[in-house]
């Protein structure tokens, strides 16, 4: 009997353990990522029992981080970064400096560690993980709000500082002090070149190429093309320009997110993001060696304290000083109160160059592992502090100096899902009376035609939550679903109801059971059956031609339209 290849076994076992421990964490009312971390410890090389291939898992984890950051970039606009730069640039720079100095103070207290290596140790404890932060914001339903924009701007600047740190460490280790300035200039030049190519060339070529694939009508090819773009740009950025894999994927998402393809691209890659992100957290858990923590328990606990204070606490205080509302500051600080992938990269580089001793690997890993485990408690603590500060902070800045969230483009509008034979007539009626509406259409050519006519349209699958989020369902007045399949209509209605419980719904139905289902969801809504409406139209015409007044005929049609629902209601009362 042939044995499974080790890579395949590692993938299957890693996902299986992530699922089992994630489910257990959820049962204990903890975030699933806590279970993923524990799963990594259980199957890692530092604990007895089952062991999987760590190198292969870390490779998959890097893919996961790239896809996760690509998805974040799809929801992030360049103008969002510009609106938060007054907060992110001074705030993130000061926070990294504070965290690095706190970590350096801890490092200087250790025997045999000089000031330079201590600064490297401090920098490793001062950089938050973008993957962890975005997952934390997503679990709290805040990935598209003000806190997320501030956090992402903050993290982008941190990542840029890490790029410079990765240049400085080898130069300092080789005694090339004279060449450090040149190395920094080269790194900045490469980064600027990459960003210029993405903004000047990528923002034209990538949407154009994906648009061609979308017009082919193949969902499979479109999904594949999105993944190729995300990982291809990330690989090219890391190979040619020295930019991190994750940061390259992020910029690819930002560029593609400016086009109308972004929302559907986010929907297509979301399942892959979640699966590979779980592998990322498993890989973090695999790095932890409990024995190394026991070898230096005090150093490990102090490293954890530096992460919580130097990143979480400093971020909160700085944001409050920058006049960000305390609750928003607490949300951002709680998401950033941890360290992750870039800290590991910096740590391994410094250890490999002989700058840091291998004994510090344990404290840095515990700082990451412990901070992630404590994130729910950190969030509650910071929110408690924020609630006490309410009314004691300076008001939000004016339009020249504060963070300004994106203004809503539509308010009290109708969302029309499907622009087929039925949707065309509905849209014509809405346009005739100049009523605000937005169309969600999965046919690329039809969507482009609508855009050419000046109709607000989103191209993509309406059953994906990203599409209704982009359509601002939380501010809509009416949802009109003209899709022919019942399960699609139900899914869209459920998503819209979750975002906006007060939204009025009308759907296209084919059976009485579908009409009853909508009536149970909302008695003020309307489910329209094609065959019934044909019959009612004929009945209305017949009644009026037989001498019945038009108002009376319309009243009869309204009664007949609801007859099936009324019968069901009466039957329920009689029972």
Q: Helix amount, in percent? A: over 70%
CATH C-level category of the largest domain: Mainly Alpha
- Architecture of the largest domain in CATH? Up-down Bundle
The parts where pLDDT drops under 50 for at least 5 residues are 391-408, 565-575
Count all strands and give the number. Answer: 6
For the termini, the CA-CA separation is 62 Å
Strand order of the largest sheet: 3-2-1-4-5-6
How much is the average pLDDT? 78
Question: What structural category characterises the helix and strand content?
Answer: mainly alpha
- Assign an overall shape: elongated
The CATH topology of the largest domain comes to Na+/H+ antiporter like fold
Portion of residues in beta strands equals under 5%
Count every helix, treating DSSP H or I runs of 4 or more residues as helices: 25
Overall number of structural domains: 2
* Main sheet record: 6 strands, parallel
SSE map:
Elements (H helix, E strand, L loop, with lengths): L5 H22 L4 H12 L10 H21 L3 H31 L6 H10 L5 H10 L6 H28 L6 H36 L3 H22 L4 H13 L4 H26 L2 H6 L1 H25 L4 H11 L4 H12 L8 H13 L1 H14 L25 E4 L3 H12 L4 E5 L2 H9 L4 E3 L5 H6 L7 E4 L4 H14 L4 E6 L2 H10 L4 E4 H16 L4 H12 L1 H12 L1
Parallel strand pairs: 1-2, 1-4, 2-3, 4-5, 5-6
Helix pairs in contact: 1-2, 2-11, 3-9, 3-10, 3-11, 4-5, 4-7, 4-13, 5-15, 6-7, 6-14, 7-8, 7-14, 7-15, 8-9, 8-10, 9-10, 13-14, 13-16, 14-17, 23-24
Membrane topology: Multi-pass membrane protein
GO molecular function, one term: antiporter activity
Family: Belongs to the monovalent cation:proton antiporter 2 (CPA2) transporter (TC 2.A.37) family.
């Amino acid at each position: 009997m042939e044995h499974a290849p080790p890579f395949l076994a590692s993938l299957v076992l890693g996902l299986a353990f992530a699922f089992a421990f994630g489910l257990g964490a959820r049962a204990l009312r903890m975030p699933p990522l806590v279970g993923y971390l524990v799963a990594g410890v259980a199957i890692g090389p530092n604990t007895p029992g089952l062991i999987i291939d760590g190198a292969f898992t870390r490779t998959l984890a890097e893919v996961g981080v790239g896809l996760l950051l690509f998805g974040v970039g799809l929801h992030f606009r360049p103008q969002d970064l510009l609106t938060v730069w007054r907060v992110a640039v001074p705030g993130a720079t000061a926070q990294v400096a504070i965290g690095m100095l706190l970590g350096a103070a801890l490092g200087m207290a250790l025997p045999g560690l000089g000031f330079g290596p201590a600064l490297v140790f401090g920098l490793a404890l001062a950089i938050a993980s973008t993957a962890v932060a975005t997952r934390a914001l997503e679990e709290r339903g805040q990935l598209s709000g003000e806190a997320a924009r501030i956090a992402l701007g903050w993290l982008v600047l941190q990542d840029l500082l890490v790029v410079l740190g990765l240049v400085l460490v080898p130069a300092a280790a080789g005694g090339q002090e004279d060449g450090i300035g040149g190395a920094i200039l080269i790194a900045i030049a490469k980064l600027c070149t990459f960003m210029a190519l993405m903004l000047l060339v990528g923002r034209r070529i990538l949407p154009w190429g994906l648009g061609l694939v979308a017009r082919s009508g193949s969902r499979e090819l479109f999904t594949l093309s999105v993944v190729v773009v995300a990982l291809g740009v990330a690989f090219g950025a890391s190979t040619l320009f020295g930019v991190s894999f994750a940061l390259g994927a992020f910029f690819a998402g930002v560029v593609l997110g400016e086009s109308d393809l972004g929302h559907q691209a986010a929907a297509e890659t979301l399942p892959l993001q979640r699966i590979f992100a779980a592998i990322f957290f498993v890989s973090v858990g695999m790095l932890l060696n409990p024995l190394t923590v026991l070898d230096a328990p005090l150093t490990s606990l102090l490293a954890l304290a530096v992460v919580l204070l130097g990143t979480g606490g400093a971020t909160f205080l700085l944001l409050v000083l920058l006049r960000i509302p305390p609750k928003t500051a607490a949300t951002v600080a709680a998401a950033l109160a941890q360290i992750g992938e870039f800290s590991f990269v910096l740590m391994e580089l410094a250890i490999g160059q002989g700058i840091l001793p291998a004994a510090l690997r344990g404290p840095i890993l515990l700082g990451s592992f412990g901070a992630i485990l404590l994130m729910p408690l950190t969030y509650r603590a910071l929110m408690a502090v924020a609630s006490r500060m309410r009314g004691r902070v300076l008001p939000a800045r004016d339009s020249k100096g504060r963070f300004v969230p994106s203004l809503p483009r539509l308010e009290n509008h109708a969302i029309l899902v499907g622009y087929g034979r039925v949707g065309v007539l509905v849209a014509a009626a809405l346009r005739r009376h100049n009523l605000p509406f937005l169309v969600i259409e999965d046919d690329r050519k039809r969507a482009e035609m609508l855009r050419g006519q000046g109709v607000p349209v989103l191209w993509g699958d309406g059953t994906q939550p990203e599409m209704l989020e982009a359509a601002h369902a939380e501010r809509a007045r009416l949802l009109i679903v003209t899709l022919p399949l019942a399960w699609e209509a139900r899914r869209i209605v459920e998503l819209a109801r979750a975002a906006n419980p007060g939204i009025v719904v009308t759907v296209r139905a084919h059976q009485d059971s579908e009409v009853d289902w909508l009536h149970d969801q909302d008695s003020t809504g309307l489910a329209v059956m094609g065959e019934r409406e044909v019959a009612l139209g004929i009945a209305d015409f017949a009644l009026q031609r037989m001498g019945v007044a038009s108002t009376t005929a319309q009243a009869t049609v309204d009664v007949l339209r609801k007859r099936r629902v009324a019968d069901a209601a009466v039957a329920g009362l009689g029972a």
